[in-house]
Amino acid sequence: MKKLFDKMYNTATKLLNKNKDLVEKFDHSLVVSVLACKSEKLYIGMNIAWWHSVCAESTAVSNAYQAGEREFKYLMAVKLKNGTNEFYIIPPCGICREMFSELDMSMLQVILKQDEKYYTKSINELLPEY
What we know:
Layout: H1 2-18, H2 20-26, E1 30-37, E2 42-47, H3 56-66, E3 72-80, E4 87-90, H4 94-102, E5 109-114, E6 117-122, H5 123-126
Parallel strand pairs: 3-5
Antiparallel strand pairs: 1-2, 1-3, 3-4, 5-6
């Protein structure tokens, strides 16, 4: 899995680097999300972080659905924080977690990173108990 996760991370950071001017121009952070499907294709979403923005995760999911994908395996969101050149793997926000739940994507694994090691959590693990 590390090879796939590295590929997803490199895809995200490449797009973030390409769009650094947006971070400076709009004085906001930038998030890129990469969604890996069962078909082994990757779909990308980007968030420019303005007051009424669409999350990178929902954009990636929308792009995958438009392409006919219906089986999702892994999701990674990477943030470039304003004023830095550092990238952070972040968990999806509460709205995206709810979207994954509503779309019955309980098999989706969210990729996170701690101490330079990848690990995954299911959407169900990230949702609060009802």
